[in-house]
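Researcher: Good morning. I'm working through a list of sequences from a screen, and I'd like to move beyond sequence-only analysis. For each chain I'm collecting a predicted structure so we can compare shapes side by side. This is the next one on the list. No need for commentary yet; just the structure.
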Amino acid sequence: MFVSRPSIRQVSFFIVLACLAVPLYAWAAGWSLTLSDPADDDDGPGGYKYPTDPVYKPKSFDLRKVEMTERGDDIEFRVTLGATIEDPWNSKEWDGNGFSLQFVQIYIDMDHQKGKGFVEPLPGLGAARFADDEAWDKVVLLSPQGKSRLSAELRAKAGAMKGAAVIPKSTRASGKTIVAVVKKSDLGGAPAAGWGFQVVVQSNEGYPDKGDILTRRVNEITGAHRFGGGNDGECDPHILDILAGSAKGDKSEIAEQHKALAYTCGSKVAHLPMIYPTP
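Model: Good morning. C-alpha cells for this chain:
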C-alpha cells in the first residue's frame, strides 16, 4: 500500500500543535528549587521593631531562604530564618507544631495572568496587595497552630480564599528551619516553570483581632508583645520580611523590599511582588 509522506508545511503544523499541548519547559521529576533572601531585613518597610519581651530573639523573623523539593507524591517546603526557632509558649499544649512565634505564608501564582486568582492576601496581613497579573492561586500555611485551629480560622475568616489555602500534611521546626510537607494534589500538581512565589513572614497570634487570621499586628509603639514602627490604623502591612528582587540573597534587595512594603496612609498600600524563577 502506498503511503504519502507529509509535506514540510504539514510537519510544521504538527510541531506547533505539540508545542501548544505541553509547557515550553518544565522542571524534571525530582526537582528542587531554592530562593534566597538577604540577612538583616526583618524590619518590613524599614523601621519595624521587635517586641521587647526576650522570647522575640533577634533575627527570628529574618527570612534567609526557602527550599522546595519534590518527594514522590509530596512537595517539601523548608523556610530558613536567621535564628534558631524556639517554642517559648509550649505549642504541644495547644495541639501546635513545635514552635510558637512565626507564621509563614507561601503564595503561589500558577498562570501569571491578569484576572485570575486573588490580589489581596489572606486577612491579617494588613494593607498589602499583589499586582493584577501576579494574583495568587494557592497559599501554603506554615503555622504553629494545629490543623483544626487553622481550618476553623479559614472557615470563619477567609471567605472565597478558603479553598485556595493549603494546610500541610505535617509542619515542624528543625534548628533555624520550618519544614512543611504538602500533597502535590493539594497544589493541583507539582510546581512547573512559570509559577511565581512569594514568602511572607509575620508573627503568630493565638488571640488575633477580629477578622485577622492568626496575625500579630505591627503597632505604632513597641511593647512587650507588640511590634512597633507601624501605624495603629489600617494602612500598614503586618509583614516583617518577604522575598525581594531576584531572590538571590543580594544585599541590594533590602532596598527593594523596603520600597515594595512602603505605604502612605490614605493613598498607597504595600506591594507584594511575585518571584518567577527559571529552571
